[in-house]
Specification:
It is built from 18 helices and 20 strands. The radius of gyration is 28 Å and the shape is elongated. The protein starts with a helix and ends with a strand. The chain has two domains: 3-292, no CATH class; 310-573, no CATH class. It is 30% helix and 29% strand. The chain is an alpha+beta fold.
Amino acid sequence: MFAPLAVYVKIMTQRSFFRVMAVGIIILLLIGITGCNGNGFFTKSPLTRSPSTEQPDAAMFVSKQAPVIVSMLVNPERLQAFERDEELSKIKTSLLANTRIDYQEDIKPWLGNEITLAVTDLDIDRDSENGQQPGYLMALATIQPEKSREFIELLFSKRALAGANLATEQYKGVKLIYDNQVPPNPSQKGEIKNQNSLAGAVIGDKFVLFGNDPKVLREAINNAQVSDLNLTSSSKYQQAIKQLPKKAQVFAFLNLPIVAKWQGLKPDAQTFDSQIISLVSNSNGLLAETALLAKDETLPSSAQLSQPVGALQYIPVSASLAVAGSNLSGLAESDLAQLWKQVTAVLSASEEDVISRLLPALAEVQKQWGINWREDIFNWVQGEYAIGLLPRGEQTTPDWIFVAEKSEKTPATISHLDELASSGGLSLNSFTLDKQPISAWTQLTAAVNKSTEAKDRDSFAIQAKVVGVRADIGNYEIFASSVEAINEALTAKKNSLIDSRNFQKSIAAIPQPNQGYVYIDWTESRDILERQLPILKFVEVLGKPFFQNLRSLTVSSYGSDTQLLKGGIFFQFNR
């Protein structure tokens, strides 16, 4: 889902004017649309793209072999209605701080309704001796071509005053202007040459193009003149574009095999060969949707849900993370698992099991009991299920609750768990909690009370450490990590997650039917997620306004096409 994040981080390492402009604008788009959504402005003035624009016109400049293209199909000035505490203006000023360019005077007058950024090539000069130098192309729609040309002249004249060597040329009827800022030691082995260069051109009366090398602009002009070369003639691109929601304001298209090569990734199996991601805002937040297109037909999607999962009635509203759906026996192969794996693999740069990484409390149970969640428990859950993590203040590992709908396999599974617990040295005990029978797996230890008198003998006390508890209630079996946790589950009907207005708003934004949810309360989960996914701290710095207002995020998958994995993440913001 978040593969573009790795792309943005990669681009951020390139020290150039183009990096400041290109990456800066992309961050501006994402933050500008979402970062000021804390006061409900979307309900007053919904932001939608021009109805006449179905796909970016600038795609004609981009090769079919390009790794990634990102487009915004609305003028940034339309974001001004959502500005709070001048955050948006501060971002614009910060991005252009070292360029001697004033957005209001130099860019705003001519900027149209499209901004597109593309990574056009993995290495412009195909020379491995000087390092990998990707080609970057940025296309800005213009509504005043003359103003655009004045901007190009102004920009490069200021770069010349700063010491750049300028050059111009006519290429197929288009005037190109570019400079060459060579680093101090260009001959040093492994040094990327010309990393600060910039090329610009105005194409007709519609676009201003920028590239980090004149070769990028020449290729863009070639692509526009020979339609078979550009992205618009790609069948997989056109197929992906059809998946865009009508109100998408920003989207990214990725050629996954080439992106994987660029990022040095070696996926075990290349199931999907392209991906499209879009952003759509509504009155409650922002929905980031993705569609991954498979090379061949995949397994049919798992059970589709058309209403909230009933098992969530036993998950307290205080849960920091909740996973809910149906048919746990097929979870590993489900679309939701595939989507979640995409998200966590990119953010963590690790192939470690998701349970071990983001649900450490459940992973600890596997170690203590010697069980395998999938084989010993998940496989018998064919109905509804819900898993919740409960934060415990200073306690590093949160409590957990696991709720599963009963089936004919339930009695045999419970007996199997008792056997595993016994073989692991645990004892089975029973007690009542507010008249509800409870079974507990405990670890007994003897504590020595040393006598202070020589004539007295030492005394011993038997202590029981609760490892897990279970309750049979109605149509569900409830498992928990502690007595406190199961008590919260049994009393959750008074204040359950499923009845929370915030949760209801989150799942209302997810299309139905779907295959369940992964719900994360950002405030409560932030510390846990940052420990497991350190890159989030870096992302938070880039998107400070976004994360300051973020309340929760909900991941889900939906659709039944066997050649398409479709899902989304809904971001809900504080009011």
